[in-house]
Amino acid sequence: MLREKNILLGVTGGIAAYKAAALASKLTQAGANVKVMMTNHAKEFVTPLTFQALTRDRVYDDTFAETEPEKVAHIDIADWADMIVIAPATANMIAKAANGLADDMVSTTILAATCPVYIAPAMNVNMYEHPAVKENMNKLKLRGCHFIEPGAGYLACGWIGKGRLAEPEDITAFLQSEYEQQSAYLGKKILVTAGPTYEYSDPVRVFTNPSTGKMGFAVAAEAALLGAEVTLITGPVQLETPAGVNRIDVTTAEQMYEAVMERFPDVDIVCKAAAVSDYRPVSTAKNKTKKRDGDLSIVMERTKDILAALGEKKDHQLLIGFAAESENVIDYANDKLHRKNLDMVVANNISSNNSGFGTNTNEIILLPKGEEPRSLPLLTKTAAAKELWDSMEFMVKRNDS
C-alpha cells in the first residue's frame, strides 16, 4: 500500500538515528518514493551520504542551501509529501513542533506541511515520561499528528524502560496499515476501461484510433494502490497488466459494451478512459476486399454509447468519463458531464504538445459535478491519474455517508 507514495523522512539528533537508515531502506523496498531531511545534530550520528545512497535522492539538511532558485526547499518538499515521518523524534524536536519553532530544515518543514505527520519518539525513559514532553505530545495529537509508540527495553544510555525507537519494520507496517485505513477507496470495486477498439470492415482492414491505453492503465494502477478492487477492461494494447488489477481483453465496441454492462451492477465506480469507436461498418466482409479502380464506400452505423447507457442505469455508482477534444475543450466536456449524467469528466486537449494519444504525459482539466473546472499542468499519466483519484475522494466519502 505504500507503493508510489511520497514519504518525507525527518531524522533528528539522537543515537537512534542509525535506525533511520534501515527505515529509509524498508520504505524504499515497500515501493515508496522517499526523501530525507536531517537536522545538523542528526548528521553527528549518520552522514547524509548514507541516506542519499539508500534513497537515490539528495538529502535536505540546510534551509539556506537552495540549489534551485525557483523553489523554496522546505515548502517544495512539504508539498511533495503524502506523509511526513519523523524518526527518531527527539524531545527537542517534539518541543519545537509543539510550539511552532522553526530553526532547522525538519522543524521548518513540519510547519509548512499539510499532509499527515507521524512522529516516532526516541529518548531516555525519564525524558519520555517527563510532564513537559507529555504535554508537548498531547498538543501535537490535538493538532492531528500521529505518534508511533516507542518500545521498552535496554536503552543506549544504559537505562531500561520505554523510549527505544520502534523497529524500522514495525514503523513500515504501521504506516502501511494507517494508509489503508485512510484510503476512501479501500475495498471499493472500481471498473476502468482503456485503449482503443477495432471495428473490422474485412479480415485485414480496421477502423480504430491512436489510443495506446496508457492513461487508462495508469488510472487502474493508481486505484489498485489505493486499496480498491480493480477490473480493467481494455481494447487491443501492448501494455503489461498493473499489479493487483484484474484484466479483461476485448476487441470491438460491442464487446466492450457487453463486458462493462455485465459488471456494472456490482461496482462502485466506473472510470471510462477507453477511446471507443463511435462508428462501425454495417457489415464485415468475410474475405479481404480486393483493390479495384475507383473509390470504395463503406456504410457506417453508430456503436452503442457506453457512458450514456451507464448514466441512465446508475444507482449508487459514481461515473467518470474522459473527453479528448481539439477545441472548446471545457464547453464540450461540460456538455458531456451533464448530458450523460456523469460525476466527473477528465478533459484533455489532444492538439496540445505532449498531451493525449501515444504520449507519456497529459495536460488535463478536471470537471467534477457541481464544482469549478481545475486545470492541471503537463504531468506524467501516472501523476495525472493520482490527481484524478484525489479529486474524486470527497465524492466517494460523501457517497458513503
Your description of this structure?
- The protein has 401 residues and is of the alpha/beta class.
- The chain is 35% helix and 24% strand.
- The mean pLDDT is 92.
- The chain has two domains: 6-182, Rossmann fold (3-Layer(aba) Sandwich), CATH 3.40.50; 189-400, CoaB-like (Rossmann fold).
- The two termini are 24 Å apart.
- Helix 1 (17-29) crosses helix 8, helix 3 (73-80) packs across helix 5 (105-112) and helix 4 packs across helix 7 (131-142).
- The longest helix is centred in the last third of the chain and has 20 residues, at 381-400.
- The chain has helices at 17-29, 48-55, 73-80, 91-99, 105-112, 125-128, 131-142, 168-182, 214-225, 253-263, 306-313, 329-339, 381-400; strands spanning 6-11, 33-38, 59-60, 83-89, 117-121, 146-147, 151-154, 160-164, 189-194, 199-202, 205-207, 229-234, 245-249, 269-272, 279-281, 300-302, 318-325, 344-349, 361-362, 364-368, 374-375, 379-380.
- The radius of gyration is 26 Å and the shape is elongated.
- The strands form six sheets. The chain has an eight-stranded mixed β-sheet with strand order 13-12-9-14-17-18-20-21, with helices on both faces. A six-stranded parallel β-sheet has the order 3-2-1-4-5-6, sandwiched between helices.
